[in-house]
Write a structure and sequence with these properties.
Layout (H helix, E strand, L loop, with lengths): L2 E6 L9 H16 L4 E6 H4 L6 H11 L9 H19 L2 E7 L7 H10 L6 E4 L2 E4 L5 E7 L10 H4 L3 H12 L4 E7 L7 H21 L1
Parallel strand pairs: 1-2, 1-3, 3-6, 6-7
Antiparallel strand pairs: 4-5
This protein binds flavin mononucleotide.
The site of flavin mononucleotide (FMN) has 15 residues, from helix 1.
């Protein structure tokens, strides 16, 4: 049995979200194919993500300097326990599914905030002889991303270099040991009329259902 962490990072809008629809289709197909697996869901815009601020940084320092958890303030304890819960889930998951739109060539800010909480020195990576060494070996990740422009389904080398967010996610996960990474991209939405957008979304959703069988 595998544990799959499904991280949705899309703010709610009244429009149909391509990435969310495709993510949901992936999840349904995955559950049908792997009924024994345990799926854990996070909706980062619904739940919120604790930001790294002076309270967290100070409480981390206090703990490093030997302070006990009980002696921290209530606010510090709340932040730390939420962070620890997210970290434990991240470390113990076998598979990761990230669902997000592209914002300014990058990931939505809540996804970056989440990554800042769960990717931490000594837990997900350690200092190795030749640089950081990931501790999360043998796991796999999928990024389902929607964008206005086309970065992957194109021969345009300039555009291909601009998807910084997806490249960053792949690199960061690789650094913690998650080397098996694949993307499903619903692209070109800024240039599509509603019918074309729906048709393309359906095609990408079918691709996602296919990937779900072997992921
Ligand atoms: C704040 C903001 C920034 C965006 N930046 C980009 C961008 O840099 N490149 C791009 O191709 N699309 C960009 N878009 C367009 C979205 O990625 C696109 O509309 C996508 O389809 C939204 O995801 P959804 O279809 O899942 O809702 C941006 C949209 C917003 C709201």
């Amino acid at each position: 049995m595998s544990t799959v962490l499904v991280i949705k990072a899309h703010p709610k809008t009244t429009d149909v979200s391509n990435s969310v629809v495709i993510g949901d289709r992936f999840v349904k197909a995955y559950q049908a194919e792997h009924p024994e697996d345990n799926l854990i869901f996070h909706d980062l815009y619904e739940e919120g993500v604790p930001e790294i601020n002076s309270t967290n940084l100070d409480s981390w320092k206090k703990l490093t300097n030997g302070e006990t958890y009980q002696n921290l303030s209530e606010n510090e304890q709340i932040l730390l326990s939420r962070q620890q819960q997210l970290q434990e889930q991240f470390i113990h998951a076998d598979k990761y599914v990230f669902v997000s739109p592209m914002y300014n060539l990058f990931l939505p800010n809540r996804l970056k905030m989440y990554l800042d909480l769960v990717v931490v020195s000594t837990k997900t990576w350690v200092e190795g002889e030749h640089g950081p060494k990931g501790t999360l070996q043998g796991k796999k990740a999928l990024h389902i991303q929607s964008s206005g422009g086309t970065y992957h389904h194109t021969d345009n080398e300039f555009m291909a270099k601009l998807d910084v967010g997806d490249g960053y996610l792949k690199m960061l996960l690789g650094q913690v040991g998650v080397k098996d990474y694949q993307g499903i991209y619903c692209e070109g939405n800024s240039h599509r009329d509603p019918d074309d957008m729906a048709a393309n979304r359906e095609l990408v959703a079918q691709e996602a259902e296919k990937v779900a069988k072997t992921f």
